[in-house]
Amino acid sequence: MADTGHIAVYPGSFDPIHNGHIDVAERAAKFFDKVIVAAYDLPKKRLLFDADRRMEMMAEALRHIPNVEVAKFSGLLVNYVASVGAMAIIRGLRVFSDFEFEFRMGLANKKLAPDIETISIMADERHIHISSSTIREIAELGGDVSTMVPGFVDRALVARFEELRALQPEPGYTISIRD
Ligand code: PNS
Question: The domain containing residue 84 runs over which residues?
């Protein structure tokens, strides 16, 4: 097989992609030949955007990084990582409470696929408070998320909540859980 260089997968729900994700992707792209930022199609949480819409926004937000590709995946992450010939999983780490989940996921993935390494990149302090769930909650309540997401994601959030409000007038579409 031809040498395709060092590939990493940066997986997540990306519902929606935010500035913290973009920063982690930019930094990962500096030390891998290729980084595939991959949206898990059906995370066990209530989604605001479907996988194709999430991927569209990821592509737009990351198109300035030449060695980053976007994709979506189903099923076990380690199987996807192996299928694209990647050697590493990238995850961003923000606050201490992320650690337990990340540690458990890292250990489980290591058990399933011992040759695939998980690499955690510490969030930049400018982004430490940002999470997709916080962004969804603020945007749903009409708050300003313009410092947390690119402008087109901000507009997509407004449009999506307008769409949802037309279907269900009471607030409370999103549930606030970690991501
Ligand atoms: O952005 P998130 O929601 O923290 O990302 C979590 C994600 C999608 C990376 C994780 O749930 C995942 O890898 N799901 C795929 C299914 C899988 O492999 N589960 C076992 C991992 S412990």
Answer: 7-129
